[in-house]
Amino acid sequence: MFTGEQVEKFGKTLLNVIQDLIGTEIRSDEDLYLVIQKLPVQDRKGIWQVIASQLDSTAGEVHDYYFNTWQLQFYENIGNYRAQIKQLFSELYNAQQTPKEIISNTIKAFNDNFPSNSCNQRKLYQIVYRYIQGRQHDSPITSTQSVKHKNQSMQYDQETSNSSQLSIFDNYAFQQAVAYEMK
Fold it and tell me: How confident is the model at residue 139 (pLDDT cuts 50, 70, 90)?
């Protein structure tokens, strides 16, 4: 997580690193963003580590801050379209399709319905993915799954009643394993 000081320094540090890399002056954040978009992938990977060392951070934190926060200033707020995205998702959702197909169909329909939108496609993907997760969580359990879950619950209840024999760590590990199996 970035501190306030790191957030303040991020833009200037990014600008300096990119200017040094390409050897040209960049006049605005928007130009900086466009230059970064055109950089070959191998060049972009290296900049996160350079910036991280200057901000006393990690390359992962710098990368995530860039993609999840800094670059979003150049896109339209996806939140303005949440109702429309949810509507399209509901209309197009088909449990027989893979999540990838559902996401692809929903994003395509959104972009077709709102061709002038300038929303970040990665954020759009994340929103639709969360809708799928919610739908899968809310979907009825088939009878085979129900029996499996009922048996696991009974086993969990039986093991939990004997949990006084387990150490705190073992009990936690067991609960995590059961929770994983029930997914």
Answer: low
